[in-house]
């Protein structure tokens, strides 16, 4: 991992918020900010530490899919959290909601396609993933590190990954041209990546601080879901399998599972999968 020149000075944000951004690790190039964040977490990095890269060679989304981005154009970051185990289910919601808030702050209307894609008029603006571990394995061999003070039983170690298209020009990327958009495309002007980064950390910090106080992001996350009420097909997302269910996305439950009602009127709670939404004719 190489350290970059500092035109955007991302590290200047460190320590300015309650939790998120306790440390900022700004890299010019890396394979995956998720992998970097997990290494830092195992070595005792504090909660709220962030890894942001100008470019990553093996950035991944859900199901280990790659994330397309050119050098220093977009937000490619991962955040280390150490939440109570009971809060882990809200981390994916929290991340998607925070990105949605950033877009709204620029005047861009958007919605969330269950469970993790932030979209503008059906085009993907951002994707988020959340991974978590509990028990001693969450901190590998560094259980004695003074930065890790939370109970293995009550707390998890988690990493949220966010890929947010800021100045991506989809027309220059044939693999995503038909399905993606960016802040700059929606605003028809270049966007300051550092400004976006600050707004994103502020949104993450606001929502994470709120759930730590006993509140929930479920209600507002549900309100922004564009999937509810639509006819959808949910596939497992695993290569080599054809498991799928088609029906009406009726609602989400209290842990964020999508409730899909099939043609026989039976409700199926779906915790993960690849959603295809039927076009409105």
SSE layout and pairings?
Layout: E1 24-30, H1 33-42, E2 50-56, E3 75-81, H2 91-105, E4 111-113, E5 117-120, E6 123-134, E7 156-164, H3 183-187, H4 193-212, H5 218-224, E8 231-235, E9 244-252, E10 258-261, E11 267-270, E12 274-277
Parallel strand pairs: 1-2
Antiparallel strand pairs: 2-3, 3-7, 4-5, 5-6, 6-7, 8-9, 8-12, 9-10, 10-11
Helix pairs in contact: 2-4, 2-5
Description of the structure:
The protein has 281 residues and is of the alpha+beta class. The protein folds into two domains: 214 residues, 2-Layer Sandwich (BirA Bifunctional Protein, domain 2), CATH 3.30.930.10; 51 residues, SH3 type barrels (Roll). The protein has five helices and twelve strands. The protein has a seven-stranded mixed sheet, with helices on both faces. Strands 11-10-9-8-12 form a five-stranded antiparallel sheet, with no helix packed on it. The N terminus is likely disordered.
């Amino acid at each position: 991992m190489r350290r970059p020149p500092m035109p955007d000075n991302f590290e200047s944000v460190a320590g300015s918020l309650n939790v998120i951004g306790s440390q900022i690790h700004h890299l010019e190039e890396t394979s995956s900010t998720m992998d970097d964040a997990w290494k830092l977490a195992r070595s005792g990095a504090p909660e709220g530490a962030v890894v942001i890269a100008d470019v990553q060679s093996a950035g991944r989304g859900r199901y280990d899919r790659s994330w397309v981005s050119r050098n220093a154009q977009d937000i490619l970051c991962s955040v280390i959290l150490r939440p109570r185990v009971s809060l882990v289910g809200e981390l994916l919601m929290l991340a998607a909601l925070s990105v949605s808030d950033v877009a709204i702050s620029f005047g861009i209307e958007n919605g969330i396609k269950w469970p993790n894609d932030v979209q503008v008029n059906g085009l993907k603006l951002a994707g988020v993933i959340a991974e978590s571990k509990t028990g001693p394995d969450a901190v590998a061999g560094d259980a004695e590190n003074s930065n890790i003070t939370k109970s293995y039983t009550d707390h998890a170690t988690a990493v949220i990954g966010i890929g947010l298209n800021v100045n991506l020009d989809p027309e220059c990327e044939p693999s995503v041209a038909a399905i993606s958009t960016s802040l700059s495309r929606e605003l028809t002007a270049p966007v300051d990546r550092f400004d976006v980064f600050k707004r994103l950390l502020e949104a993450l910090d606001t929502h994470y601080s709120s759930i730590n106080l006993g509140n929930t992001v479920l209600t507002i996350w549900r309100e922004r879901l564009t999937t509810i009420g639509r006819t959808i097909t949910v596939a497992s997302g695993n290569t080599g399998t054809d498991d799928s269910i088609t029906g009406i996305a009726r609602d989400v439950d209290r842990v964020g599972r999508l409730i899909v009602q099939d043609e026989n009127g039976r409700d199926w709670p779906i915790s993960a999968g690849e959603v295809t939404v039927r076009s409105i004719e």
